[in-house]
Write a structure and sequence with these properties.
The protein contains 29 helices and 29 strands. By secondary structure, the chain is of the alpha/beta class. The structure holds one RNA strand.
RNA sequence: GGGAACAUAGCUCAGCUGGGAGAGCGGCGCCCUUACAAGGCGUAGGUCACAGGUUCGAUCCCUGUUGUUCCCACCA
C-alpha cells in the first residue's frame, strides 16, 4: 500500500482486473436466487451526466450488495438507438461535411448512422466503467439488435392482430422542423407571451356582428364553425345561422356547445378542427368539416387562398394587418398562454391531420393500474415474492401514475424518420390493403398481389424501450436468461421518464408475459442540480462533468456522495465540498488499514522509530486453521471487553446496513458505514488497540483484522475501488485466498451475539475519557501535560469493570497515571473534580489550571445541571404525566432527577473548595 | 383547475412507527501526539416556516395559512 490515498493510481487497474476475471458475469442457470436490474439504456449519442452517475451508483450498490449476499445478480446493460436524437446528431455531423440527408437517400443515411454508432456508440459505456459500474457487459444489447428488432415486430404484429394497433387519420402533434409526428409526451407545454386578438365576425346577412377572441388569428383560415354557449343570451338568436369568415368570406355555422365558457374572452369561440385538439373534438361532435390549411413544412396551403405559401407566423402578421385594414380587428390584448414545443428542437408544434399508427393502450393501462394498486397493501418483502404487483418508491408518485394511466390516450407510435424500427406493414398497389407481418412480406395477404411497398415510417423510440426488461433477455424466445431473470427485481430510474418509459414497460411487460410484471419495484431517484439548486444546462454553463469529478476526487468519493444524498423524493444539490468530505472518508479508511497492517507487521518500512512492531501474526496458527469469523464466534465471550465491544458494534452496524439496503435506503446505509468506520473503528477501537495489543495480542490482532475485513465488505457496494485495493493488501488468512476479489466475497450478516455486559463497561470508559478530555480542553491544559489523576467509583458493583479500563483511559486521556483514590485528594482544595455518571476523578490543579478558569467551568456545569433539573421537575410535577405516561418512563425521570441533584451537591462542594483556594 | 413533495444550525442535508434535536462542510480555541493536518481534541450555533387541534407529552399525527419546487390538464 502506498503511503497516500491516491485513487487515480489504482481505480483503472482494479476495474480492468475485475473485468478480466469476469467478476460481473451473471449465470443463466444457477442455484442461487436471481436478482436482476435492467439498466436504463442511455442514448448512443449520450455522454455521462450526473443523472446517470446517480442512477448507476444506486444500481451498482444494489447489484454489488446482492451479488455479495449470495445472489445470482444480473445488471443488464445496453444502449438505445434514440430515433430523433441520434438522427439529429448525425445530420448535424454530416452537414459539416456538406452532406445532406435528402441528397444521399435513406439507405446511405442509415448506413452513415450505423458507422457513427460503431465509432461513438460505446463512449458512454467506457465512461460508466470509470464509475465502477459492475454490469454484465458481455450481455450488452442495443435496441436495434436483430434480437430486439424481432421482439419489436412480434409485439407490433400481435397488437395489430389483437386490434390494439391500428392505422388511422387523426389530429396529431407535428413538428415542422423534425418533419415527424410526436406523441403527446414529446410536446412540452411552455409559457409564452402572446396576444389575444379580438376579431369581428359578421352574420351572413350582415346584420349582426359578434366578436371572437383568439391567440392564433391565422387559424381562422381553417375555421369551420363558430361556437357559443347554448344558454348565452347574447348569441342565442345566432345559433343555427351562419356567419361570414373575415378575409375569406366563407360562410360557417354558429353552433351551440356547453364546452364554451361564457365568461372567457367574448364568449364566442372560433372552431378550427384541423389545427386544434379541442376544436377537433368539437368538430367531431358536431360533424363539422375538418380543414387542413397548413402543410408539413408549416406553410399555408391552397385552402388559405391569398395567404398560400406563407409561413404560419407570416400568415399571422398578414391576417392581422388585413383585418385591421378592413376594420375587423376590435382590439389587441397582451396575453400569456402556453404553446407546445418539440421536446427535441423547441419548435412550436402544430396539430395536424395525418395518417399514423396508434396503439389503443387503454386496455393495457387498466392492468397496469391494478398491479400498482395491489402493491399498496403489501410490504416490500411480499412484493418481492410475487410477480403480479409493483411497488413504486417514493410512494408519492403512485397518485401521479394512476392519474396519467386513467386518462391515457391512444399512443401515436409512427415517426417520419429513417433511424429506427421500420414499421412491419406493407401496402398493396393493387388493392390498397395493408399486410402486417412478422416476416418481410412479398405477397398481399388480401389479394395476393406482389407489388408491395413497406411503410416508410419507423416506430417511436420508446416503443422498443418499452420492451427492454424482456427483449434483452431473449424474448419472445423463452431462453434460460428469460426464465431465470424475468420478472426483474427493480427498475431504478429518474422520475422524469415515469410516463415515457416506466409506465409503458409496465403495460407491455404485463401484456406480453402472461400478466407477469417486468419488475417488482420501481425506484425513482431525484434530479441532480447544481449547488444553487438550478438545473444543470449547457446554456447556463453550470454543468459539472462527472468525469472531471472522478478525476479530481476519485470515483469512490463521488459515489459515496451520491449515495449519501440519494434520500427519496428530493432534488440533489451537488456540492464539491461534500464530495471532498467523502474523499476524506476514503482517505481515513485507507490510513486505518495502513495502521492495522503496519502495527501487525504486514506492512514495513514506514513506522517511526520507537514504535513497537509486533511480529506478523500467523492467523492460521492462532485460529488453528479456522476462518477468523468462526474462531471469533466461538471465543468472543472470553475476549477483552474492548474486543467484545467492537464486535458488538460491528454486528449492530451490519444489521442496520442490511436493513437499510433491503429498503433501498442507501443514504442510511452509507451514513451507518461512515459512522462505524470513522467514529467507532478509527476513533475508538484503533486507539484502544494501541494499548490493548500490548496485553491481548492474539485476539486483538484477529479482531483488528477481522473488523477491518468486514468494514471493507460493508463499504464495498458504495466505494468499490478503495475497498478492493485495500483488501488485496490484506495478509493471507484462513478462509480467504489473497487472489480472490473482494467484490465476490460474502457480504456480512449480523451475528446474534448482542451487547454483552463486558462490552458495556467500555461505554463507561469512553465517557470517562470524554470527560477528562473536555476538562483539558476547557481549561486549556497543554496537550503535552501528563497529569496524575485518581478516581473513585461511586457504585461499588461497577468498581471492577472500571478498574479494568484504567490502562486504556490513561492512554487515551494522555495521563501520567490513573490510580484509585485513597483519600489524600478528597477534600483538597487544590484538586479539581470531574464527574461522570459512575466515577469521580480528582485532578491536581497546581501548575495545570488557573483557579479562576476552573471556577468558571464548574459554575457553568452547575447552572447547566440546574436547568436540567428544572426541566425534569417540570415534567414530574404534572400529575397527568405521572398518571398517564408509562411507569418505566416515570421511573427513569425520577432516577434522572436524583442523579442531577447529587451532581449539584458535588458542584457546590467543589465551588466551596475552589473559593477557599482563592 | 387537479395532484405531489418540501420548509430543521451560516451552508448542504439526516431524523424509522410521538418521550428533552443530529451529521458533513464552514466558524472559534488548542495541537504537525508515535495510521491519517484530507488529521486529532474541545467548543459555539436551532421558539425544528406560521397558527390552531389531538395527546400526560408534538420536529414527528390532523386541519388551516404562508413560501418554494415539481407533475398532469390546459378557457379559445
Amino acid at each position: 500500500m502506498q503511503k497516500a490515498y491516491d485513487p487515480e493510481s489504482f481505480e483503472t487497474r482494479i476495474y480492468e482486473w475485475w473485468e478480466k476475471n469476469k467478476c460481473f458475469r451473471a449465470e443463466d442457470e444457477s442455484k442461487k436466487p436471481a436478482f436482476a436490474i435492467a439498466m436504463p439504456p442511455p442514448n448512443v449519442t449520450g455522454a455521462l451526466h450526473n443523472g446517470h452517475a446517480l442512477g448507476d451508483t444506486i444500481q451498482d450498490a444494489l447489484t454489488r450488495w446482492k451479488r455479495m449476499s449470495g445472489y445470482n445478480a444480473l445488471w443488464m446493460p445496453g444502449t438505445d438507438h434514440a430515433g430523433i436524437a441520434t438522427q439529429m446528431v448525425v445530420e448535424r455531423h454530416l452537414a459539416k461535411q456538406n452532406i445532406k440527408r435528402a441528397e444521399i437517400g435513406r439507405a446511405a443515411f442509415v448506413q452513415k448512422i450505423w458507422e457513427w454508432k460503431e465509432k461513438h456508440g460505446d463512449i458512454i459505456m467506457t465512461q460508466k466503467r470509470k464509475l465502477g459500474v459492475s454490469a454484465d457487459w458481455e450481455r450488452s444489447r442495443f435496441t436495434l439488435d436483430p434480437g430486439l428488432s424481432k421482439a419489436v415486430r412480434e409485439v407490433f404484429v400481435s397488437l395489430y392482430e389483437q386490434k390494439l394497433m391500428y392505422r388511422g387519420t387523426r389530429l396529431i402533434n407535428w413538428c415542422t422542423r423534425c418533419q415527424t409526428a410526436l406523441s403527446d409526451l414529446e410536446v412540452i407545454p411552455t409559457e409564452r407571451k402572446g396576444n389575444f386578438w379580438h376579431i369581428r365576425y359578421k352574420s351572413a346577412d350582415g346584420k349582426v356582428t359578434l366578436v371572437i377572441a383568439t391567440t392564433r388569428p391565422e387559424t381562422l383560415l381553417g375555421d369551420t364553425a363558430v361556437a357559443v354557449h347554448p344558454e348565452d343570451g347574447r348569441y342565442k338568436q345566432l345559433v343555427g345561422k351562419k356567419v361570414k369568415l373575415p378575409l375569406l368570406n366563407r360562410e360557417v355555422p354558429v353552433i351551440a356547445d356547453a364546452y364554451v365558457d361564457k365568461d372567457f374572452g367574448s364568449g364566442a369561440l372560433k372552431v378550427t378542427p384541423g389545427h386544434d385538439f379541442n376544436d377537433y373534438d368539437l368538430g367531431k361532435k358536431h360533424s363539422l368539416p375538418i380543414l387542413s390549411v397548413f402543410d408539413k413544412q408549416g406553410r399555408v396551403n391552397a385552402e388559405g387562398q391569398q395567404y398560400k405559401g406563407l409561413k404560419i407566423l407570416e400568415a399571422r402578421d398578414k391576417v392581422v394587418t388585413d383585418l385591421e385594414a378592413q376594420g375587423l380587428l376590435e382590439r389587441i390584448e397582451p396575453h400569456t398562454h402556453s404553446v407546445g414545443l418539440c421536446q427535441r428542437c423547441d419548435t412550436v408544434v402544430e396539430p395536424m391531420i395525418s395518417d399514423q399508427w396508434f396503439v389503443n393502450v387503454k386496455p393495457l393501462a387498466e392492468k397496469a393500474i391494478e398491479v400498482v394498486r395491489r402493491a399498496e397493501k403489501l410490504s416490500l418483502a411480499e412484493v418481492d415474492r410475487r410477480d403480479d404487483a409493483i411497488k413504486i418508491v417514493p410512494e408519492g408518485w403512485t397518485n401521479t401514475y394512476y392519474q396519467w394511466m386513467e386518462n391515457i390516450r391512444d399512443w401515436c407510435v409512427s415517426r417520419q424518420l429513417w433511424w429506427g424500427h421500420q414499421i412491419p406493414a406493407w401496402y398493396c398497389a393493387k388493392c390498397n390493403e395493408i399486410t402486417v407481418s412478422r416476416e418481410d412480406s412479398t405477397k398481399c395477404a388480401h389479394c395476393g398481389g406482389s407489388e408491395l411497398k413497406q411503410d416508410e415510417d419507423v416506430l417511436d423510440t420508446w416503443f422498443s424501450s418499452a420492451l427492454w426488461p424482456f427483449s434483452t433477455l431473449g424474448w419472445p424466445e423463452k431462453t434460460k436468461s428469460y426464465r431465470t431473470f424475468y420478472p426483474t427485481s427493480v427498475m431504478e430510474t429518474g422520475f422524469d421518464i415515469l410516463f415515457f418509459w416506466v409506465a409503458r414497460m409496465i403495460m407491455m411487460g404485463l401484456h406480453f408475459n402472461d400478466g407477469k410484471v417486468p419488475f417488482k419495484r420501481v425506484y425513482l431517484h431525484a434530479m441532480v442540480r447544481d449547488e444553487k439548486g438550478q438545473k444543470m444546462s449547457k446554456t447556463k454553463g453550470n454543468v459539472i462533468d462527472p468525469l472531471d469529478i472522478i478525476k479530481d476526487y476519485g470515483a469512490d468519493a463521488f459515489r459515496f456522495t451520491l449515495a449519501s444524498m440519494a434520500g427519496q423524493g428530493r432534488d440533489i444539490k451537488l456540492s464539491l465540498e461534500r464530495i471532498e468530505g467523502y474523499k476524506a472518508f476514503c482517505n481515513k479508511l485507507w490510513n486505518a488499514a495502513r495502521f492495522a497492517l503496519m502495527r501487525l507487521g504486514f506492512l514495513e518500512g514506514e513506522l517511526p522509530p520507537g514504535l513497537k512492531v509486533i511480529a506478523a501474526p500467523d492467523f492460521s496458527v492462532i485460529t488453528q486453521g479456522k476462518p477468523l469469523e468462526e474462531w471469533i464466534t466461538s471465543k468472543r465471550k472470553h475476549f477483552h471487553p474492548i474486543n467484545q465491544w467492537i464486535l458488538a458494534r460491528l454486528d449492530l452496524a451490519t444489521e442496520r446496513v442490511n436493513v437499510a439496503m433491503e429498503e433501498y435506503r442507501l443514504n442510511d446505509a452509507a451514513a451507518e458505514i461512515y459512522e462505524f468506520v470513522w467514529h467507532e473503528y478509527c476513533d475508538w477501537y484503533i486507539e484502544f488497540s494501541k494499548e490493548l495489543l500490548n496485553s491481548h495480542q492474539e485476539e486483538t490482532s484477529v479482531c483488528l483484522m477481522h473488523v477491518l475485513d468486514q468494514a471493507l465488505r460493508l463499504s464495498h457496494p458504495f466505494i468499490p475501488f478503495v475497498t478492493e485495493e485495500i483488501y488485496q493488501s490484506l495478509p493471507e488468512r484462513p478462509g480467504v485466498k489473497r487472489t480472490e476479489p473482494l467484490m465476490l466475497q460474502a457480504f456480512p450478516k449480523a451475528s446474534k451475539a448482542s451487547l454483552t455486559e463486558e462490552s458495556e463497561s467500555v461505554g463507561m470508559w469512553k465517557s470517562a475519557i470524554e470527560a477528562l478530555r473536555a476538562f483539558r480542553g476547557e481549561n486549556n491544559i497543554s496537550p503535552k501535560a501528563r497529569p496524575k489523576i485518581t478516581y473513585e467509583v461511586m457504585a461499588s458493583e461497577k468498581h471492577q469493570a472500571f478498574e479494568k479500563g484504567a490502562p486504556y483511559i490513561r492512554a487515551l486521556a494522555q495521563l501520567e497515571s490513573l490510580s484509585e483514590e485513597k483519600g489524600s485528594s478528597r477534600g483538597d482544595a487544590a484538586v479539581g473534580e470531574v464527574l461522570t455518571r459512575d466515577v469521580k476523578f480528582y485532578i491536581p490543579l497546581k501548575g495545570l489550571v488557573d483557579v479562576e478558569g476552573e471556577l468558571k467551568r464548574v459554575q457553568k456545569e452547575k447552572s447547566d445541571t440546574l436547568a436540567d433539573i428544572e426541566f425534569v421537575k417540570g415534567k414530574l410535577s404534572r400529575e397527568s404525566f405521572i398518571a398517564k405516561a408509562p411507569q418505566e418512563l416515570v421511573d427513569k425521570e425520577r432516577e434522572k432527577l436524583r442523579f442531577l441533584e447529587s451532581k449539584v451537591a458535588e458542584f457546590d462542594r467543589a465551588l466551596d473548595r475552589l473559593g477557599r483556594l482563592k
